[in-house]
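Incident log, support desk, overnight shift.

02:14 A customer reports that sequence design results differ from what the structure should imply. Their input is reproduced verbatim below. On-call engineer (initials T.W.) acknowledged and began investigating.
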């Protein structure tokens, strides 16, 4: 079997995690903290040191074409600190002139001053966590912004950025088919009002075991939509956005033509990527590794991996298959064999036949893809290949 191509590929993407929030949402399971913004300057010093030290250890060629500030709420951070982090990265890693440079933020963190500062040091794509346009649903999931603040933040962002992503969630407590329909209808209106909205991410609510939201709305609560309704909510999402001209290019992501998220495509195509900051996960030279999710531990030793795993050929093939099937275009089995030395149509013949007979997979002899019905149970479909 040939060497796995990803281990010789150029590293083109870097993720930078900023954990600070004004309020931690009750469904959140990310490395995010509230009430500790006084540590931001020190955290910036540490993450700059991590960038310098980690990049110095890498043998693979680097030419960054995407950088992504995620969180947490990077939009709450001082633009000067974000700029300092980016300048450190630029100093140690070549960066493409046509970089896709994204920042995540809550809508109420967006101000004219910040938006202007972000643009001035190179950010050209903004991802806004709106989640819902119904105040009752925002309150139910513990968001600390309102519908009015969401619209105000979007208006400011559209004045400074021509490439905006908006995040929405469904299967929320208190959400109904009717309320989701109203949100989707207004979303389409907003895309017409603000042509800068080029991308929509929409995820089904998944509650972690220790999610505070479970204390108010246990899994069996009548406040959640029933299973059949969740399928309806997803179908409404797909129909509404595709009718509005968006391409459903990944299970949870939609984009206008030519505005797919290049950063996330690196993940889904199973390519190498850098990552820095508390809880950050990276994939470099055959290893998946992660920093501690504990802010205290990370700041004490930013180079101490909490997890590091060498991905052998068999595992990498399965991961590439799983990630590739998340893409709605699916997998070209001939290209897959050229890259990984495996004919997946032959190796997974039984699984493909089983899923195809159930209507969950399409396979024409060259392209393997999940159907619309398969998307609704995509996690179950993907486990068939694991």
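02:41 Re-run completed on a clean worker. Output:
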């Amino acid at each position: 079997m040939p060497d796995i191509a990803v281990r010789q590929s150029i590293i083109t993407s870097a993720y930078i995690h900023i954990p600070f929030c004004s309020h931690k949402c009750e469904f959140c399971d990310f490395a995010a903290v509230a009430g500790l913004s006084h540590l931001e300057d020190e955290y910036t010093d540490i993450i700059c040191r991590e960038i310098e030290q980690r990049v110095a250890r890498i043998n693979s060629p680097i030419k960054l074409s995407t950088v992504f500030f995620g969180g947490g709420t990077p939009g709450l951070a001082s633009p000067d600190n974000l700029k300092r982090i980016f300048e450190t990265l630029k100093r140690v890693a070549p960066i493409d002139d046509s970089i896709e440079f994204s920042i995540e933020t809550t809508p109420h963190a967006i101000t004219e001053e910040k938006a202007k500062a972000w643009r001035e040091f190179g950010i050209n794509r903004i991802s806004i966590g709106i989640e819902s346009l119904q105040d009752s649903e925002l309150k139910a999931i513990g968001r600390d912004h309102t519908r009015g603040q969401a619209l105000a933040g979007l208006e400011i962002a559209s004045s400074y950025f021509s490439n905006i992503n908006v995040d929405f969630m469904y299967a929320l407590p208190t959400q109904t088919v009717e309320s989701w329909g109203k949100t989707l209808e207004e979303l389409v209106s907003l895309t017409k009002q603000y042509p800068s909205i080029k991308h929509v991410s929409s995820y089904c609510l998944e509650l972690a075991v220790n999610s505070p939201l479970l204390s108010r709305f246990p899994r069996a609560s009548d406040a959640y939509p029933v299973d059949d309704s969740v399928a309806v909510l997803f179908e409404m999402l797909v129909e509404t956005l595709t009718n509005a001209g968006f391409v459903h290019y990944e299970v949870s992501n939609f984009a206008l033509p030519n505005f797919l998220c290049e950063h996330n495509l690196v993940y889904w195509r199973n390519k190498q990527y850098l990552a820095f900051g508390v809880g950050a996960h990276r994939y470099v030279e055959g290893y998946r590794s992660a920093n501690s999710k504990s802010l205290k531990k990370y700041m004490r030793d930013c180079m101490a991996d909490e997890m590091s795993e060498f991905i052998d050929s068999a595992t990498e093939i399965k991961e590439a298959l799983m990630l590739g099937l998340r893409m709605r275009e699916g997998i070209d089995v001939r290209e897959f064999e050229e890259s990984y030395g495996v004919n997946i149509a032959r190796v997974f013949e039984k699984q493909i036949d089983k899923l195809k007979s159930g209507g969950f997979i399409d396979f024409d002899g060259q392209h393997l893809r999940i159907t619309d019905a398969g998307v609704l149970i995509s996690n179950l479909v993907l486990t068939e290949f694991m």
